[in-house]
Design brief:
CATH topology: Rossmann fold
Order of helices and strands: EHEHEHEHEHEHHHE
Bound molecules: nicotinamide-adenine-dinucleotide
Strand order of the largest sheet: 3-2-1-4-5-6-7
Number of domains: 1
Largest sheet: 7 strands, parallel
CATH architecture: 3-Layer(aba) Sandwich
CATH class: Alpha Beta
Strand content: 15-25%
Radius of gyration: 17 Å
Structural class: alpha/beta
Helix content: 40-55%
Length: 246
């Protein structure tokens, strides 16, 4: 078991699930590199209040240049990387007839290509230490008849496939790769992009009948980021109040 102080990269860390995950990791003594297009200052303040070190990287996770920038920050500031949470994503609700190729590609780039690019940055560092945890955020919508999300569902099924594939290729380096699927939730993005009536009606179909919020996937991500999940890889866990069942 590794005993050194760990560092986690969390993408989309400025708000929503990414912010809650960053703080949850920090409370367990894990330092954070918060990657986001926006300022992550509020997240870093909470990370530091929890007693961990926080560094922010203002960057677009969907472009290859960020891979080098992230690797350089990790090397210079922490000398390695232990955990990657690929959380950044967008979910514009657009009917198929209104999705043009540009939007289709943008959604694939931000939701799926980013997970490949960030993994390329950290896997060599994790392999050096023969230990790593990669947690990819997908969505339970892949299992639901959700309208206006064909571009999004394609990207999030891609995340599940990438998770299964990458798990094979990095297991020999002590790295596990798993995915977590939240449900429609009251994050800042969820409040902006999902009809509140949809969130309420979905929550009534869950086993646990309340809308989800930013905290609701944190425990699942912490488990998959920990030593305790060492025998779990290539899996997808829907942390969604029991709406979908595998
Ligand atoms: N909230 C939901 O209802 C819900 C449900 C299922 C899955 N998810 C998934 O959870 C993840 C987080 O969602 P959220 O609700 O917290 O979203 P959010 O919109 O509240 O926050 C997303 C964060 O990601 C950042 N981001 C977006 N594109 C980026 C890019 N190219 N580079 C760097 N940062 C970028 C944004 O600036 C923002 O801070 C997403 O992958 C989303 O698909 C959300």
């Amino acid at each position: 078991m590794s005993t050194h102080r760990k560092v986690a990269v969390v993408t989309g860390a400025a708000q929503g699930f990414g912010r809650a995950i960053s703080v949850g990791l920090a409370v367990r003594g894990i330092d954070i590199v918060a990657v986001d297009l926006s300022d992550s200052e509020e997240t870093l303040a909470e990370v530091e209040a929890a007693g961990a070190r926080g560094v922010s990287l203002k960057a677009d996770v969907s472009i290859p240049e960020t891979t080098e920038r992230l690797a350089a920050v990790l090397e210079a500031e922490f000398g390695g990387c232990d955990i990657l949470v690929n959380n950044a994503g967008i979910y514009p609700n657009v009917s198929f007839s209104d999705i043009d190729y540009e939007l289709w590609q943008r959604v694939q780039r931000i939701n799926l290509d980013s997970q490949f690019l960030m993994s390329k940055a950290v896997v060599p560092l994790m392999a050096r230490g023969k230990w790593g945890r990669i947690v990819n955020i997908t969505s339970n919508s892949v299992a639901l008849p959700a309208p206006g999300l064909s571009h999004y569902m394609a990207s999030k099924m891609g995340v599940i496939g990438f998770t299964r594939g990458l798990a094979n290729d990095v297991a020999g380096d002590g790295i596990t790769v798993n995915a977590v699927g939240p449900t429609a939730s009251l994050t800042p993005g969820g409040k902006a992009h999902i009809d509140p009536e949809v969130i309420t009606s979905l929550s009534m179909a869950q086993a646990i009948k309340r809308p989800g919020g930013p905290q609701d996937i944190v425990g699942t991500v912490l488990f998959l980021a920990s030593e305790d999940s060492a025998w779990v890889t290539g899996q997808t866990i829907m942390a969604d109040g029991g709406l979908t069942r595998l």
